[in-house]
Amino acid sequence: TTGSDSSAACELCPAGTASATRGAESSETCSPCRPGTVAATAGRAECASCEPGTFSVAGSDSCSECAAGTYAANPGQGECVPCPHPLSSVNGSTTCSFCMANFYLRNTSADPGDMFTSPTEFCKPCPPDADCPDNTTLSSLVLPRGFWRASPSSAVLTECRLFGGKAKAGKTRCAGSETGASRRRRMVVEAGSDAYCASGFTGPECQLCNASNHYLVDGEECKECADRAASAGRLTGIALGIIVACGLLAWAYRMQSWRKRRFIGPPLRLTDRLSAWCVAIGLQAKLKILLGFYQVCIVLSTTYSARLPEKYTGWSDRVQEAVSVDVTALFLPVQCVSFSLRLIAYALSPVGLIALLLLLGVGIRVNRWRAASERPRLGDAVRRGILDLTPPGLVLTFCFVPSVSAFVFRAWSCKAYVVDADSTTYIEYMRQDASVQCHTKEHDSITKLAIFLIVLWPLGSLVLFTSLLVPCYKALHTRTPTDLSRATAFLHREYETRWYWWEAVDLLRKIVLTGVVVLIPEERYFLRLVVATLICSCYAVGLAVATPYKRYEDDILAVATNLVLLLVFLGASWTTLFDAIEEQSPGQGKAEAILGWPDTDAIVIPMTVLVSAALAIFLAGAVVAARRLARIPTIRLVSTKQQPELTLGKGQTWHLFNSHIWSDSAVALTALC
User: Shortest CA distance to 148 belongs to which of 192, 105, 107?
Assistant: First the structure.
């Protein structure tokens, strides 16, 4: 108040000011409240301090709440202090107790004082593809539709795969985080990974059907399983149908008289010409090289967990889905039968097919033996029957070994998902059957069965090829073919005599690349890529030094495909390593700082250019070398343009080549004695 000696009434100091002077004679004694204090009403002798969480400027008559993202820990503060990055707060806060947007609280039991002192230790950047509004904790990360995580304690989001479906199949199964009341309710109960699945789906990446006796179709729909007996019957019927059809085609091809018939003759004659053309260009060796290259490439994502940008691999994935058909999955889908039964069916069905072929050959020979007037020993007829159909049996074995071996070794192929905040604890599920958790009793029983099948297929095929090739050593080196060397020509025909055993080496390479590397734990998937890169490097050097093929262009093709495979593994290693670093330190640019590439495109594009350049160089080198070889004067067959393979029949010891140049057109008679 102000005062004077006169009888005039005293006047009150306005709100926002105060005066402690008695008998003041002017308003100049009414001082504005200092920042952090207020005079809410007129006539105050002193200003009151603002409560914690509020502030005021000079001359204020009321305290204002601190804005979100700021705080006032003490009374009487003239301004609010911004929260230390990356903490935040609500309006009127006395401290900063939660993480700001685009960050999440790693440990909900953290002491608020420790959080305030070391905020970056507790608030972590929001994981890629997740949504982190203010006050987000690890358990309340908002997952967009199409994503899944193994546990509310995991900061690693997994994009749900398509599993053969259309582009939106993953979003159909994986609902992501819900919003509103249901989301708040789930945050309280800390629901498991199934909380991110749409209704009717469960399991890792929501790839399993909740209903019993149902299986996933086209990546987004559950259908009831068919009767097992009917499925097995259809599978057996198709296999027998294929065998009968192949037998009829082979029988028709052997009928020489049919080539003059009106309707069936033209196809048979065309087949003859195609066969001659295939022999002339050496198509068998080239197809074997390309098939081996393909058999390794298709397991890049499943066996090696390689991460390549989808925009570059989408077309190859579609080709793989079109040509790679798991017959057992068509008739015995996952969830309809156990993986053990599928494993037995997949591994033993080719064995049964090959056995039927050999029995067919034996049956034909025994039938001829019974009809013959002079019967040789029955054992000879059985042996000849087996040798008759050994070539198609070896072809089937060659085609089946890599795929069956890869399928058997996938009993150890597990996909790991992070379940803790430190990314040190994983839960693993089988890739081929996500209902089986790895390293459990159920999984152990599957691996024991797989060990037996490894002895049957990978090891058994190596032993088979070796045991068939070793007895052919003398016949091939002395050029005196035997029944066995003729029957096993599929294994050694395209190789130089000194390298006739190279097929077994190539088979071992494919078995290791498509299957054995799976034995390296999933957590060390990068080591698998390193091992594959080393194998491809050594094999490429071996091919370049040995040149095991008879045809020069086959050597070039083998080296070129293996070099491409080496570059593919190198590119996959770098992209996988880049993505792994980005997952561990999202948004920090560590991957670029370590590897030097800003993104995976910068890796894939140069590798693609390098692969194309390597193929162009090899192609040009092959053309130049072929032209040089063609100029060298050698005796060549007109049909194949290759040097003739001169073999000695039984009882023969030498060859005679007779050449005569006539001096004129007279007719001469040459007698050979």
Answer: 192
Strand partners of residue 103: 125
d(CA 123, CA 128): 15
* Cα-Cα end-to-end distance for the chain: 150
pLDDT in tens, 336-385: 888 898 889 888 888 888 888 888 888 888 888 888 777 778 888 888 88
> What is the rounded average pLDDT of the residues 416-428?
83
The more confidently predicted of residues 643 and 4 is 643
Cα within 13 Å of Cα(58), Cβ side? 4
Q: Which residues pair with 136 in a beta bridge?
A: none
559-592: per-residue pLDDT in tens?
Answer: 988 988 888 888 888 888 887 777 777 666 777 7
| β-strand partners of 197 | 174
Quick one: tokens of 42? Answer: 């007129």
Phi then psi for residue 18, to 5 deg, are: -155, 155
Which of 447, 443, 412, 415 lies closest to 428, judged by CA?
415
Contact 143, 132 (CB under 8 A): no
C-alpha distances in Å from residue 157, one per residue of 171, 413, 580, 588, 600: 14, 21, 13, 18, 19
* DSSP label of 655: -
CA 114 – CA 135 distance, rounded (Å):
17
List, in sequence order, every residue forming a beta bridge with 65; answer none if it has no partner.
54
Cis preceding linkage at 86, omega within 30 = yes
Read off the amino acid at residue 67. A
What integer pLDDT is reported at residue 185 of this predicted model? Answer: 35
> What burial letters (b/e) apply to 634-670, b meaning 16+ CB within 10 Å?
eeeeeeeeeeeeeeeeeeeeeeeeeeeeeeeeeeeee
Query: Tokens for 252?
Result: 């028709």
Cα–Cα distance between 489 and 500 in angstroms, integer? 10
Two tokens at 7?
């009888």
Q: Which of 497, 491, 494, 498 is nearest to 461 (CA)?
A: 491
For residues 208 and 202, the answer to whether their CB atoms sit within 8 Å is: yes
Give the C-alpha separation, 248 to 485, whole Å. Answer: 26
Q: What is the pLDDT of residues 59-79, one digit of tens each?
A: 899 999 999 999 999 999 999
Q: Are 590 and 615 in contact (CB under 8 A)?
A: no
Look up the pTM and report it.
0.74
- Count of CB atoms situated within 10 Å of the CB of 150: 24
Q: What is the DSSP letter of 307?
A: -
